[in-house]
Design a protein that fits this description.
Two copies of one chain form a homodimer.
Chain A lengths: L29 E5 L5 E2 L5 E2 L2 E8 L9 E4 L26 E2 L4 E2 L4 E5 L14 E2 L4 E2 L9 H14 L5 E7 L1 H12 L4 E7 L7 H16 L16 H15 L2 H7 L19 H13 L5 H13 L10 H4 L6 E7 L7 H13 L3 E7 L13 H18 L4
Parallel strand pairs in A: 5-8, 5-11, 6-7, 11-12, 12-13, 13-14
Antiparallel strand pairs in A: 1-4, 2-3, 4-8, 9-10
Helix pairs in contact in A: 1-2, 3-4, 3-7, 4-6
Chain lengths: ~400, ~400
């Protein structure tokens, strides 16, 4: 094996560095380089080589390498699950769920999260240098699918000598990957917790993504995807894309509860186009802060991967086929106010799993926090994950 | 009265001209000019003078002028209710509802629709010449509210010698105006049919509008609102705004039924950023065609007017107060799949009307067509409007 040597240092991966200036500097992450001779085969028919995968790990890998929890991050997430983000200085995106004594207990489990191929936090993506030109790939980067991302993660686990995972979990696009893992690598997944996800992207979801992509591409600073070479950034377009997407992550009820029609630092409306309302100010902030940490082309690729995902279509239109013969234990979770992945999406997965007599539990959690519930303080979610993992650990005989 | 003379020619207003090149050429409409000496007082504290209002009418005004149905158009609608649009060449936007033998029967009623002040189809708006500078107003145009628009319509009716209207109706922003009419001109409204509307704009709705405004303003061709002087058009930004808004006009179910995950003119995905999916192609078309008929600054002003609307806040936070003493007959209509103005919004209006013992009926129509249902073929809507108008006409003794 000619892979560049990388020493695995569980628990020491997060070095909590100071704020960095731009996306693509995954300080504190470990990176595995796969050389030209070991390409990643892609659904589009091409291959990516060489390629790198950046990842973070938390907890200690046991001797049997049987306590691995693979966390799959969402569209704009990254590998910084439970340690300070190197660009924003903010806590890891799932510190509510992952850490010592948390539902995904790093005192018991070895947690690993890989930045998706096509991403912008250290794994090879459109920001990376195209070896054929010596310039950033831009739109010459191949379109990546959810199965491609999962195959890349499997390659990383191979590299680490991890034959199978005790559990794979994640929300939203991460949940799609959980389902893809369970379908494509049945003998490598002991248990799976897909959260706020579905086996396909709906028409409305594709529509929202298309709006975001068009907003990015409408920005003249996008330069046909070649902005890095020209020292430009489609900041305005990407901010608009993020604003539109962000609305879909919340619920009408949550927006009403948080902001209602409250005004921002003023007693009455301005009769102008300033951010009079708190919700406007909040959205503008969401847009502006996003562009400091995320690459615009990566956003295009990540959204496309979600749009293309259709697990049933990959199995002759029969979702149950995708899971035929599975012995994985599933815990499927949805949220009542999630209108991006409403409960019926995960229910279709549960029905498919039932059709193949899989071991599946299903929890719909009552909350008004919308799609983002999986990232927030949701005690019922924590109790569900904690209980499921404990039971699964007992079943597997994990003495930890 | 120094108003410019305009002869009213019912039934001859629609001249069905050929396609015109740009917004702002309201061929076929009648226009009333209000001179400098007759300003329109505005909620922002300023006044607009001089100003013009473009309108269309259909049917014949009876001698008593008692058969007027005032139609209030929606955000991006205009006065071309039931006659070919002069720019697009398409049928009027409410030909399903208004015309000879239709629910709003132009054999019985004199139907009138006024382009909103701040609009771009002939009424004074940000495209109009600012008399102080000789250039288009742009963002120097004052921010207009729903009550401002309604006061302008009342001024036009005054000009036409119409003391009161038999019915005022409209959907979405038009429905907001119906409510404002009923609250502010109680003795001028015999009956009212607000459809797919509410007494305020929700936090989520404000959020979507803000995304649209930011998309327009992010387009460098917007030029701080001075694009007309510079012979530019923020076409890309406005198209993105329209795309985002358009998703909110449909329901998830309707998108699924119409498009699902069907591909556009191809057997398999392209692994690129073309419009692979029909829903993408459809949305792009919606965006591109919108910019041919609508002014970007007008879009900013119209969205702002909706955001500002809060009828309860205008009455000490008590919506019932807005309707106290009303003798108007109301027929409130919502659609089950409308998530822009869900049923609870109009139900709050119905409850306020009940609190003041108003004459109100309320119909929630089962459909999966979303907010746009009011524009579509909805037999139950037609039957509701037709039945309500007939009963109201009998009550008023309209012998037509």
């Amino acid at each position: 094996m000619s892979k560049a040597k990388q020493k695995i240092k569980p628990d020491k991966a997060a070095k909590r560095p100071a704020r960095s200036p731009a996306p693509g500097s995954p300080s504190g992450s470990q990176i595995v380089h796969f050389p030209e001779s070991e390409p990643l085969q892609l659904d589009c028919g091409g291959a990516l080589a060489p390629f790198s995968l950046a990842y973070q790990s938390y907890g200690t890998l046991n001797e049997e390498k049987s306590n691995v929890v693979l966390v799959c991050h969402a569209l704009t997430g990254d590998q910084h699950v439970a340690s300070t983000h190197p660009l924003t200085g903010k806590p890891g995106w799932w510190e509510t769920m992952v850490g010592p004594g948390k539902p995904v207990d790093t005192n018991r489990f070895f947690v690993i999260c890989v930045n998706h191929v096509g991403g912008c936090m250290g794994s090879t993506g459109p920001m990376s240098e195209n070896p054929e030109t010596g310039k950033p790939y831009g739109l010459d980067f191949p379109v990546i699918t959810i199965p491609d991302m999962v195959r890349a993660q499997a390659r990383l686990l191979d590299h680490l000598g991890i034959a199978d995972v005790f559990c794979v979990t994640g929300g939203s696009m991460g949940g799609m990957q959980v389902l893809e893992w369970a379908a494509s690598f049945k003998d490598r997944v002991f248990s799976a917790i897909p959260i706020a996800a579905g086996a396909r992207h709906s028409s409305q979801n594709i529509a929202f993504h298309e709006v975001g992509r068009q907003a990015v591409m409408a920005d003249p600073q996008w330069c046909g995807g070649r902005y890095l070479e020209r020292d430009k950034q489609p900041r305005k377009g990407l901010a608009v894309a993020r604003m539109a997407a962000h609305i879909t992550y919340l619920s009408d009820e949550a927006l009403h509860r948080k902001f209602g029609r409250s005004l921002q630092d003023r007693a009455r409306v301005s009769f102008g186009f300033d951010a009079d309302f708190q919700v406007e100010s909040y959205l503008r902030h969401q847009g502006a802060s996003f562009v400091d940490r995320f690459d615009a082309n990566s956003y295009l690729y990540m959204t496309r991967a979600m749009d293309y995902f259709d697990l049933a279509a990959d199995h002759d239109g029969d979702l149950a086929q995708a899971f035929a013969g599975t012995s994985t234990r599933f815990c499927c979770v949805s949220f009542t106010s999630d209108w991006l992945f409403p409960t019926e999406e995960i229910r279709a997965v549960v029905q498919a799993l039932n059709a193949v007599a899989a071991d599946v539990s299903f929890v719909e959690i009552e909350t008004d926090n919308g799609h983002d519930s999986f990232l927030l303080h949701e005690p019922e979610l924590f109790a569900t994950v904690s209980g499921f993992l404990s039971a699964a650990a007992r079943t597997r005989g994990l003495d930890i």
